[in-house]
Amino acid sequence: MKKNSSLTTKLITAFIALAVVSYFGVQVWRALTRQQETTPVYIYRAEHVLPLAGRVVRDESVVDCTDALVELRRAEGERVAKGKAIATVYNSEQALEDARELASLRSRLEQLQYAQSAARDAEEALRLDSEIEADIVALHTARASGNYAALEDAADELRSTVLRREYAYRDSADLSERLEELDAQIRAASAAASGKYRTIYAPFAGTFSAVVDGYESVLTPEALHTMTPDEFDAAAPEAISGTAGRLIRGEQWYYAASVPEEDAAALRLRESYELAISGAELSFSVVVYDIGEAVDGRCLLVLRGDSRLASVTLLRTQSAELILESHTGLRVPKNALRIDEKGQTGVYCRIGLQSFFKPVELVYQGEDYCLVRPGGVSAARDSDLVLYTLRAGDEVIVTSGRLYNGKVID
Question: Class of the 38-44+329-408 domain?
């Protein structure tokens, strides 16, 4: 009985030893026979961001207008000088139709006058042909982008250019007769439209926006200085009656958001950052304009933008990211970094069936990756300089094992 127990113990011990040896043998065989694992190098930007949920604030005034038939004369984001027309107001549908007919007649008169001055000028005709081609391209571009305001403008421009091209070869006597007819029609149309419309002019120089949301007098640059985070978050728009849009003073705009006190403490007044507006694929250079007093652990952060006002005229409540820090470089896995016999940091890359060491300089360390830039390479030949310089698209070897320049790998 005792003898059988001893034999069983020996058999179990031998089986365990055989299993351990087999396991390590398999691992060694895999390490010797497996192909080298590689990963491509690519340009990458790492960012440390502060997420924000705030509002865009501008120094703006509403242009009051209670009439129903208003025709805007300015495009969104267009600069308007003081005293220049913003909109035209009509007292009836017929007055609007008369005004459009008058505008059409004046446009045709301008085209005929142009054609008369360029009559029988072959060079001018060729130039008009080129303009027609450019107008067609602009029309297709506007249609593809879904910008219907630009589409209408492009269609009008194409129509005008085609008519000028058509009139360019008319007989000068025919053109003179037609000009007289148009002039008479314009005088009659002007008399019919007289007193049926009025024009709204810009009270000051500014940037025009057609959309009014009621925050214009609630959220102002001055009000932001005294608002608490709770007051800012609770701010509600005023009721809107009739308007003809709004005018924005100056070139500056602001983005304000309530942020935790510890996040505000990491920022400094007048420091520059990049603000990325979520969903709009827009980014702007901004400076920290104001950091309000902390209330219940939160502060009102105000950022100021000094350019590209036309890009934010339609923005109000927006999520955004304040990019506090960014690094750009070639991304490689952290475990691919090696140090050669000269003490240089670099990575081995697979080129053909061989491995080559390419020195790098560390730019930034992420959780499992690094951003690097090519290190200095001493090479007598241009071909060696290309061979040992890390570039986007290179295949970095990430598996362990002994590597050296020129080593043949599977």
Answer: mainly beta
**Confidence band of 164 (pLDDT split at 50, 70, 90):** low
Q: Which one is predicted more confidently, 127 or 344?
A: 344
Would you say residue 345 has pLDDT above 50? yes
| CB-CB contact of 350 with 409 (8 Å) | yes
pTM of this prediction? 0.68
Question: Over 80: is that where the pLDDT of 365 sits?
Answer: yes
Closest CA to 57 of 346, 289, 280, 397: 289
Q: What is the predicted pLDDT for the residue at 85?
A: 92
Q: Domain coordinates of the chain in residue numbers?
A: 1-31, 38-44+329-408, 50-62+205-327, 85-200
Structure tokens that stand for 258 in this block: 């309530």
Does 313 or 25 have the greater pLDDT score?
313
